[in-house]
Design brief:
The chain is mostly helical. The chain contains nine helices and two strands, in the order ββααααααααα. The protein has two domains: 2-156; 180-289. 70% of the residues lie in helices and 2% in strands. A two-stranded antiparallel ribbon has the order 1-2.
């Protein structure tokens, strides 16, 4: 609320009440959280281990801030010393316990989608309470900030999450979060197996009816494109900017090779077929890591 004080001779002085300042401050926090949430949803690249660790630490700090502001808000509300106050405090306690468990499992390289499910399920109870009852703006603003980072957490573990919905989180096919080291090892296996396949393919083509034909030129071009896109994926991963689109491009180039290998059996040399089957298995694993829904064309 804006009020006019007694004006001095040189003009009118406008003062803002403490309540108005509080609302403006809370509004600013809400706006910042919304911007952060939109930014997180639009961010396409795989979140690195370092970013996840930083996010978990941020969630812990924001949880502490929310707990304190919630306590103040409840003390000044009609819920003070009621069953509802006991309920929301129990929700917050459960949420913090599950968050701690997730953090411990992450540090031990064994955090799972089920851990994130447990955190989000506890958070959903808090969210329902905060949505149903109007408390002091600071508590509401702190919850909005925390909730936006929980959205980022769901994204980091490839969990599709909707607040206030009837359905719970839908997980990716992988039971646990693959670490950066494991992703890098997988990309190295793909590159090494790609080299092995290329050598066996060259030998098989030289012994086949495709030698020195347009079909040989086509498959060599497919392999070249696949190798280039795999290198692009690796470069983007090293810069922490690898995306599901990078993986999909690799898989689409691989699909061209797969079609050739299916339609044109290289009868004189089984090594190429065997090496391609092994490389394809690695590519299936890559699709799961980046949560890409992929099927080979038959």
């Amino acid at each position: 609320m804006i009020s006019l004080t007694n004006a001095p001779p040189y003009g009118v002085k406008i003062s803002i009440t403490m309540r108005t300042k509080l609302f403006l401050f809370a509004g600013g926090l809400v706006l910042a959280a919304l911007v952060s949430s939109v930014s997180a949803q639009l961010r396409p690249y795989r979140i690195s281990d370092r970013e996840v660790a930083k996010l978990l630490d941020q969630i812990k700090k924001e949880s502490n801030s929310f707990r304190n502001s919630l306590k103040d808000a409840l003390n000044q509300s009609r819920f003070d010393r009621t069953r509802s106050e006991n309920d929301i405090n129990a929700y917050v306690k459960d949420f913090e316990e599950q968050t701690k468990k997730l953090e411990n499992n992450f540090d031990g390289h064994k955090s799972t989608v089920a851990d994130v499910d447990a955190v989000l399920s506890r958070a959903a109870r808090i969210d329902a309470f905060m949505s149903r009852y109007a408390l002091l703006p600071r508590a509401q603003a702190d919850w909005v900030v925390l909730r936006s980072d929980l959205d980022r957490l769901a994204q980091a573990y490839n969990v599709s999450w909707r607040w206030g919905g009837e359905l719970g989180p839908t997980a990716s096919q992988l039971p646990y979060r693959i670490t950066d080291k494991e992703v890098e090892a997988l990309i190295h296996r793909i590159e090494n197996q790609s080299d092995t396949f290329r050598r066996s393919l060259d030998t098989a083509l030289d012994r086949s009816r495709f030698n020195n034909t347009r079909r040989e030129d086509d498959i060599n071009a497919f392999v070249k494109d696949f190798t280039r896109e795999t290198k692009q994926l690796h470069d983007n991963f090293d810069r922490h900017r690898s995306t599901a689109n990078d993986v999909r491009t690799v898989l689409e180039r691989a699909s061209q090779i797969d079609q050739f290998m299916r339609r044109n059996r290289l009868r004189n040399d089984r090594d190429a077929q065997r090496d391609w089957a092994r490389l394809r298995d690695y590519l299936d694993e890559l699709a799961q890591v980046y949560n890409v829904n992929w099927r080979w064309r038959f």
